[in-house]
Design brief:
heterodimer, A: mainly alpha, three-stranded antiparallel sheet, B: 1070 residues, mainly beta, 22-stranded antiparallel beta barrel, five-stranded mixed sheet, 9% helix, globular
């Protein structure tokens, strides 16, 4: 008995010890491992699919938030200086910038670059037919360029990363690359990507939204115009201490290439401006930005109708809602007096020159005979405000709201409610290609022909109901062709993540941003309005004491008139050093070779 | 004749019934011998009667207990030997042969210390123990009207800190920590029930969903042992957070069947509630805040409207943002909370014969929170069988079967901060038409009263089944083999549905917003299966005065988890809520998942004792884990401890110290491990798969990414190892009436797993590496006194502990910001780095001078003196430029020690104490248990932390009257302002915002009465006790901003009020 027991016990113990491996060698059961992945073209395709979600757009991602901080809050075009601000810095337009310890825009962008580099590394090791994956390799290169361009715009020269770094890689503790090196890398990535990308026409309906050859060309042109004008007007004034300078003058090369690329897109891309003016009461410029199912406009047009967006972030009411309060947030992007007066009259002339301009005596007057974009951006699908319908009594309202990107009938029928709006976000669209083409020609040659204008921005002006821009119009009315092209960009690209960049590359950010930001024209005894009667006393629509900064006399379409001051120029202190953002201090501490940007 | 015959029949029937009852309940067998009555009396050394002493006939299940006069009466044949015993006294055996009666004087047991305590893989005598442990007896759970054993453990043991953030059933958020922080990755104690770790059941968010201990029947617990020092190393890689060993009750051999039934009914009343403002207070705060502004801001209203609201005037208010809306009293607390009744029942049958012992128990509890609008509570069902069977003298079979079910059912929403904090407090739940009222008139989409009533339910259910099979075999003399297999299976199911609830405007029109605009339902199942195999051998040998014992074993365990979840939208509100009822649409989603981990270990322990005087213990464990790469899987842990019992030394004995009964010094040093923060497969680089939306029309297509961007754990990364040293002393004085223990310990976690901060250019977070060092030290003290005066016995117990830690090394963690910092090198985890302030501006000259010095730089950049909405003025805070660099900054550096922030303590609780008072007299018993924290620094966080964190929320009314105004320039707090940027400057992270969360709370108060045996014996009842039991009836706290001291720092999330419990109960035994 005793022996038997001992045998049983020993036998049992032996049994347990023999199966040790069954308890210790346990592999993942619900996940693939990297070692066994990246072996088929479909896996490369799936891997690139994840890159599209990393383009900043409506949906908040990776703690960075969404695209709203890159709209024009705090710029000279908006009377909202309080909300969000450029890239999350509320006081950016005022020159009030906090040096952050950590910055998601820095951290996440490098994380996205690493994802891209991982795919490229796996592509190098791919043993199948490499032509099967060349499209995905090209997409990856496009994204690497895109993210480096984001860093360039925000910080200037930054470390360029083109490999999968490990914990000992020299890049981790290396110095910043100069902006010139960054640009060179962006352009070479794009040059390598372009020939391997399919044309838009060759992309199947199911894959729409993926990068086409035209999208890469248009993006490359955007980078080239940006960099050429930056070098021309802003030059090396923002380069960090110790940065290498440009090795050669590439301004003309960049401009010429931008012209050629945009021409290719215009000629062969097959894109067209979205124009339903005749059936949408001339409000194409409103409905284009909220196409979201057939209920999003009176014509029942869906996203199929849009052939203007060259690269777009795809949303869908069922599959991918924005998750953002697009309408409410965009509504905050109220226009400034400057923007309101920038819109041309239908004869192509500015308000101070055009006989068609009706003045400000009632709040509806200034909308008459104006650019359709003014109506679209301020009123959406709505009618002109009735005289006396605007109240300046709460200290919050400075005049008008913004309707660009707002869902149609948002508040009335709740076709879309907060967070469910699902229009696509335009990353690149044809109108910008036209604007690049015209501006690059003008910058390269100092002039532009009427024919080239007709090929490009006059198409945009036609949709906006504004007479064509011609050399004759400019000469006859004492206008400046370059300024008119720039004006066209400001009006067309409003809210689309370009204004701050444009002011900076033109070298005029400090002059434009440090002026008074104004709202509604309130007039005075000599110019009665809805807000002031003929004695100069405020009417019931206006409570001056609610507005802390009072009024200022500024140049308007009807001479110098009193306007509400949203933020006086004296409170602005935007400096040349503020063209670039500070590097996050935690990164400077981790890598002593990183030099902070000037002025921080 | 007929009549008397009938009576006889009746008596027969009655007596038959009586006998049957006796047989059934008492299990008494009637002897065949002639029996005589035998009387006795039991007294103590002072001659006082001992009440309730046990008298047993040796070798049988017969017996009785003494009555109030200490007397007993028993039928005997004259051959028996009686065993007389009483807790705290030495047992005596007396033969009845030739006696008619006896008088017995029991002697206090000098070896009361010879209490046997459970340690890992075995038990030990407390008197010869060399490690540091706490033991909590079944008493802590008895008559406490507490269903959750973890809650009952709060304050009971000095080394164990139990915290909860709510008293809401099923949502207590209980956290346990033994001896302070051990790692930046956090660590919880390992819980072992009846020798086997409990099933490791975490959901995807790493929340524990297995309730092995928290929903255990408290009545099943015999004892809880808490291993605190290196002796926990017998559990190796999971022991660094300490080990909690729970032992369940078993039957007693050779005893009659005992039936115990307990019931209690509880009424919960509302305790401390969130200090959110009502309508009048809300308006008062706006008026106060704007009174200080040069540029007033009234948000939706105007001054005259706020004045109306301050007077409590209800009615239609024209507003800028929402048009004409009704504003009135919208006190959600009144609408949402009321007293609720809960109940708890326990039933157990236990006993045994020579060969078997058994205990069968059942429990049921229904715990309700105080929600008035819908059921919000947890139901518990418990069944347990512990059964031992001696096959032969050498072989014993052990069977434990447990079934535990808990069902938690709550509203699916509305109990978050939307309840009382998110919106202003002036939207009544219903409009005059009895419809749910929309907040903000037409626009709103929140109404917590409607949400909890009609917005859907969240139902969670756990079914835990556990079967332990074991055997003890005496292979040779002194050589015992023990084998166990434990199978634990938990099936978890959660059903959540959110129903669309239409909201209406005050005048009865449908509002634009509704609750849950898209109704939906989701179902999740998670099944976990855990198996544990254990085999060990024990050997004991006594050679003269040298006692040796040795134990060695092997154990293997594996945990397997499988999950499945599904989701559909548009579930209609028609009373049946299942996935099947919702239409299948493209919005439906589902997901799966499965994983497993395993451990394979060897362990051993050696003990040597010389004359119970010199004690030595060495133990070790070698753990292999599936969580590490091949080559790094195994790690070894161990502990050496020793003790010296001075009172066993002759030179002490010779002193004949009356007062000192026992004195022991002990010390230990050991290494334990922890696996916190480590995933199951971190050393694999895995692919995450999902979908991306592309195409026109949009459609999903597969997407994938490399998890962690390919930065997976290195193959050399391994366990965190904690070295712990402990020294302690145990003392007993005055015939063991006074006893005390003191322990001091130091811990060092060298090789703490951290993610070293690399430059972000790397493109991801570096994987864990063994790079950090954390030091912890602390002490614990226990003192207790027990005595009796006549028939009044009483006891007082007090325990207190503290623990402090310091982060010695954590690469890259040298910068810190204002407020709470989890990791700063050279500081404790959770350090408060606050601005030092120098009062408030009382004159414009002070303001101007401050701007001249610091304006436009650092933190002051955004507070431009020319911006009336940002500029500082009278009543605002002066912050001190501590480093004298000319500006105020929220950034500090631990290496250079530069910055304007001052270290002001850490956020861990310190001087945690428990105080027990108990007494009994003539059947009455009384106990009061206080628990508290002596020091814990907190700063309130989120939207109600201070006035106007944001203008659109409700506000914290406790600040009314405490802020600077021109009439109250000596106020403790700066002026209120409606501009949140300036409020942030004035309040956030300033020294005066730090509060000491000191509190003492009457955790339990029990008054009971046990009915005299004499009365009960007539109805064949052994014991009957009625009692009142109250939980959390009183507290005193240094918290000044109106929150409950136990709920944590968030001002938003804890709208659910703490409850006070008033329970009445009954224990009855047959």
């Amino acid at each position: 008995m005793k022996k038997l027991l001992i045998y049983i016990v020993l036998g049992g113990a032996l049994l347990i010890s023999s199966c040790r491996e069954d308890f210790l060698n346990l592999a993942p059961q619900d996940q693939l491992t990297e070692a066994a992945y990246f072996t088929t073209p479909d896996q490369f395709k799936a891997s690139t699919a994840s890159f599209y979600g990393k383009l900043l757009s409506w949906a908040s991602q990776d703690k960075m938030g969404n695209i709203f901080p890159f709209m024009d809050f705090g710029s000279d075009l908006s009377s909202n200086v309080k909300d969000v601000g450029e890239a999350g810095q509320t006081g950016y337009g005022l020159g009030s910038i906090t040096i952050p310890s950590a910055d998601y825009y820095w951290d996440n962008t490098y994380s996205y670059i690493r994802s891209v580099n991982l795919l490229l590394k796996k592509a190098d090791a791919y043993t199948g037919n490499k032509t099967d994956i060349k499209q995905y390799v090209a997409e990856a290169k496009f994204f690497r360029a895109w993210h480096h361009f984001f860093l360039l715009k925000r910080y200037g020269g930054v470390p360029v990363v083109t490999t999968v770094l490990d914990l000992n890689s020299p890049e981790l503790t290396g110095p910043r690359n100069s902006r010139y090196e960054v640009v060179t890398r962006i352009l070479s990535d794009l040059s390598e990507a372009i020939p391997d990308l399919p044309t838009e026409q060759a992309i199947s309906a199911a894959d729409k939204g993926r990068i086409s050859k035209w999208a890469a060309e248009a993006f490359k042109a955007r980078v080239e115009l940006y960099e050429a004008t930056w070098r021309k007007y802003t030059g090396v004034t923002t380069d960090f201490k110790g940065s290498a300078g440009p090795t050669k003058d590439e301004v003309a090369t960049f401009l010429a290439d931008a012209i050629a690329l945009t021409k290719d897109v215009m000629d062969n891309g097959g894109y067209a401006l979205w124009n339903y003016n005749t059936t949408l009461n001339n409000r194409s410029n409103y409905f284009l930005y909220n196409i979201d199912g057939t209920g999003s406009n009176p014509l029942g047009l869906d996203k199929n109708s849009n052939n203007e967006f060259i690269l777009q972030s795809v949303y869908d009411y069922t599959l991918r809602k924005s998750g953002s309060q697009i309408t409410r947030n965009a509504w905050l992007l109220t226009p400034s007096r400057k923007l309101m007066d920038m819109y041309l009259c239908t004869d192509g002339l500015p308000v101070d020159k055009s006989p068609l301009f009706q003045g400000y005596s009632t709040v509806n007057k200034e909308f008459q005979n104006r650019d359709y974009r003014m109506l679209s951006n301020v009123l959406g699908a709505g009618t002109l405000p009735a005289a006396g319908s605007v109240s300046l009594t709460d200290g919050v309202n400075y005049g008008f709201g913004n309707a660009k990107f707002n869902s149609w009938n948002f508040t009335v029928t709740s076709y879309r409610s907060d967070n469910t709006e699902s229009q696509n976000y335009p990353q690149i669209r044809l109108a910008e290609v036209y604007l690049i083409y015209a501006e690059a020609l003008m910058e390269l040659n100092g002039s532009i022909s009427d024919a080239d204008l007709n090929l490009s921005i006059n198409l945009i002006r036609a949709r906006a109901g504004v007479a064509p821009l011609t050399n004759a119009l400019v000469t006859a009315n004492g206008l400046n062709m370059l300024n008119e092209i720039r004006r066209e960009r400001a009006l067309e690209m409003y809210c689309e993540n370009t204004r701050f960049d444009d002011l900076k590359r033109w070298g005029i950010a400090e002059t434009e941003l440090n002026k008074d930001v104004c709202g509604m024209v309130v007039g005075g005894a000599s110019y009665p309005t809805d807000f002031k009667d003929a004695t100069g006393a405020p009417t019931s629509k206006y409570v001056p004491t609610k507005y802390g900064y009072g009024e200022a006399a500024v140049a308007t379409g009807k001479g110098t008139l009193n306007c509400l001051v949203v933020m006086p120029g004296v409170n602005h202190n935007f400096k040349r050093d503020n063209y670039l953002f500070p590097l996050p201090t935690a990164q400077l501490q981790l890598n002593s070779k990183l030099v902070q940007n000037n002025g921080y | 004749m007929m009549r008397s015959k009938f009576r006889l029949e009746k008596e027969k029937i009655f007596s038959f019934k009586k006998n049957l009852m006796l047989l059934f309940f008492l299990g008494i067998t009637f002897g065949a011998f002639a029996q005589t009555s035998f009387k006795g009396k039991v007294t103590d050394e002072k001659g006082e009667p001992v009440i309730g002493a046990s008298i047993k006939v040796k070798g049988t299940s017969l017996g009785t207990i003494t009555d109030f006069s200490g007397a007993f009466n028993l039928n005997v044949t004259g051959q028996e030997t009686l065993v007389i015993s009483y807790i705290g006294y030495a047992s005596q055996e007396i033969s009845v042969s030739g006696k008619k009666s006896i008088s017995i004087q029991l002697k206090e047991d000098q070896k009361a210390l010879d209490e046997v305590v459970v340690v890992g893989y075995g038990s030990a005598k407390k008197s010869t123990l060399t490690g540091s442990l706490d033991q909590v007896s079944a008493k802590a759970f008895e008559g406490r009207a507490v269903t959750n054993p973890l809650v009952a453990l709060q304050g009971e043991a000095p080394g164990l800190v139990v915290t909860r953030s709510s008293s809401r059933p099923g949502h207590e958020n209980i956290a346990m920590q033994i001896r302070g922080a051990t790692s930046v990755n956090g660590v919880s104690p390992l819980i072992v029930i009846d020798g086997v770790p409990i099933i490791d059941n975490k959901d995807k968010d790493n929340n524990s969903i297995s309730n092995s201990l928290s929903t255990m029947n408290p009545d099943d617990i015999e004892s809880v042992t808490i291993l605190k020092d290196g002796m926990a190393a017998i559990y190796g890689s999971r022991a660094a957070g300490g080990v909690i060993l729970v032992t369940t009750k078993r039957g007693t051999a050779s005893s009659k069947m005992k039936i115990d039934y307990g019931v209690n009914l509880r009424v919960n009343t509302t305790g401390i509630r969130t200090p959110s403002a009502n309508m009048q207070q809300y308006a008062t705060m706006w008026l106060d805040a704007n009174a200080q502004e040069t540029t007033p801001l009234w948000w939706f209203a105007a001054q005259d409207q706020m004045l109306k609201m301050q007077k409590g005037i209800e009615g239609i208010y024209p507003t800028t943002h929402w048009g004409n809306i009704f504003i009135g009293q919208g006190d959600r607390y009144k609408e949402l909370f009321q007293s609720r009744v809960s109940q708890q029942h326990t039933l157990s049958l236990s006993g045994g014969t020579d060969k078997t012992t058994y205990r069968v128990s059942a429990g049921y509890a229904n715990n309700q929170g105080n929600l008035a609008t819908a059921y919000d509570g947890q139901k518990q069902y418990n069944l347990k069988l512990n059964y031992d069977f001696k096959v032969t003298d050498r072989i014993k079979l052990i069977t434990n079967v447990t079934y535990q079910k808990d069902v938690t059912s709550s509203p699916s929403g509305g109990l978050d901060w939307s309840m009382t904090s998110e919106d202003p407090p002036f939207f009544p739940a219903k409009n005059p038409y009895g419809q749910w009222n929309s907040n903000f008139g037409n626009a709103g989409n929140r109404n917590a009263t409607a949400q909890t009533t009609d917005g859907g339910r969240d139902n969670k259910e756990n079914n835990l089944t556990r079967i332990d099979l074991g055997t003890n075999i005496e292979l040779l003399k002194n050589l015992i083999f023990e084998g166990t297999a434990s199978f634990q299976s938990n099936s978890y199911r959660r059903d959540v549905y959110n129903l669309t609830v239409p909201l209406y405007t005050w005048d009865g029109q449908p509002a634009a917003g509704s609750l849950n605009s898209t109704s939906n339902i989701s179902a999740t199942t998670e099944n976990t299966f855990y198996q544990n195999y254990n085999a060990l051998i024990r050997y004991t040998k006594l050679i003269g005065n040298h006692q040796f014992s040795a134990m060695a074993g092997v154990t293997a365990e594996k945990n397997q988890w499988k999950g499945l979840s599904a989701y559909r939208t548009l579930i209609p509100s028609n009373g049946v809520y299942d996935l099947n009822v919702a239409p299948y649409s493209t919005a439906a989603t589902n997901s799966g998942g499965q994983n497993q981990w395993g451990l394979y270990s060897y362990y051993s322990r050696l003990n040597y004792t010389y004359k119970d005087k010199y004690l030595l213990e060495v133990l070790g464990r070698s753990d292999g884990s599936s969580k590490f790469a091949i080559g790094s899987k195994t790690s070894n842990f161990g502990n050496v401890s020793g003790g010296w019992v001075l009172t066993e030394e002759d030179f002490i004995k010779n002193l004949k110290l009356e007062a000192l009964n026992y004195l022991k010094f002990k010390g230990s040093i050991g290494v334990t491990g922890l696996q916190s923060g480590i995933g199951l497969y971190d050393y694999y680089s895995t692919i995450g798969t999902g979908t991306a939306v592309l195409g026109t029309p949009a459609a999903t297509q597969p997407s994938s990414s490399v998890n962690g961007n390919g930065l997976s754990m290195s193959s050399t990364t391994t366990w965190e190892r904690v070295t712990q040293a402990n020294v302690g002393v145990e003392m007993h004085f005055f015939k063991n009436r006074l006893s005390g223990e003191f322990n001091y310990y130091k811990k060092r976690n060298d090789g703490m797993l951290i993610k070293v901060a690399y430059p972000s250019v790397l493109g991801g977070t570096a994987p864990y590496s063994n790079s950090g060092v954390l030091d912890t030290k602390g002490w614990e003290a226990v003192l207790s006194w027990k005595d009796k005066i006549g028939r009044f016995t009483y006891n007082v117990g007090f325990n207190i502990s503290d623990s402090r830690n310091k982060l010695v090394s954590l690469q890259g963690a040298t910068t810190y910001t204002a407020g709470l910092n989890n990791t700063i090198v050279g500081r404790p985890l959770g350090s408060w780095m606050m601005y030092q302030t120098a009062g408030l501006f009382q004159s414009q000259a002070e303001v101007d001078a401050y701007y001249a010095k610091y304006g436009g730089k650092g933190d002051m950049t955004a507070l431009s003196s020319t911006d009336p909405t940002a500029a500082l003025r009278l009543g605002d805070v002066k912050k001190v430029d501590l480093d004298g660099n000319g500006y105020i900054s929220a950034l500090g550096n631990a290496t250079t020690d530069k910055g304007d922030l001052k270290y002001m303590g850490d956020n861990a609780p310190h001087f945690i104490f428990g105080l027990n008072l108990g007494g009994s007299w003539n059947g009455f018993d009384f106990s009061a248990f206080f628990q508290g924290v002596g020091q814990q620094y907190i700063q309130r966080s989120d939207y109600l932390a201070y006035p106007f964190v944001a203008i659109w929320t409700n506000q914290n009314a406790s600040f009314i009257g405490k802020t600077w105004t021109t009439d109250n320039t000596g106020a403790a707090f700066p002026r209120m302002t409606v501009y949140s940027g300036r409020n942030n400057y004035n309040y956030a992270n300033n020294d005066f915002m730090l509060q000491n969360n000191r509190y003492i709370r009457l955790k339990s108060l029990i008054v009971g009465y046990t009915l005299p045996k004499a009365w009960l014996s007539k109805v064949k009842i052994e014991r009957l006790r009625v009692y009142f039991s109250g939980n959390d009836l009183w507290e005193s706290t240094s918290i000044k901003d109106g929150y409950d001291p136990e709920q944590g720092t968030s001002s938003n999330n804890a709208g659910y009020p703490f409850m006070r419990t008033w329970a009445f109960g009954l224990n009855i035994g047959f």
